[in-house]
Task: structure prediction
Amino acid sequence: MGQVRAWLGVVVVLAGCVTRGPGAPGQCENMVLEQVVAPGGGAKAVVFERRCGAPTGFSTQVALIGPDDRLPDMPGNVFIAGNGGRISRGRSFVTVIWPTATKLAIGFENGAAVFKSERRVGAIEVVYFPRDLNDVHPRTQGDPQSLRAR
Result:
């Protein structure tokens, strides 16, 4: 039954994206959950919950913006995942870290419905790590240095 609800939530979110676009400006509200500036201050990763109401509901998103910029009233340009019908209540299931000034690592809950996952945004490489909800930060399997620039 839980899987049916999860898939139903995905269908509702996708239906909203098809009928209204992925949360058109003015119809949604962005709630910032976390902001992390890259080493050296060249960019900022913003984790936010985008609330668009019925039928699209909530999604957790990541945007890359300038270090001094405010989050625009737009969908994330890096990562979008469904919240499974739940509100974050200030604690996101998505985490971000900057292993280097040009590499962003995004950790997200295993089983999350991912709708967008860019591998590169401008000069920033993006890597992803599914993880258990209880993990605080994304991790790789094996050597922790594998997040470092090669």
Notes: The helical segments are 2-20. Confidence is low (pLDDT under 50) at residues 4-23, 138-150.
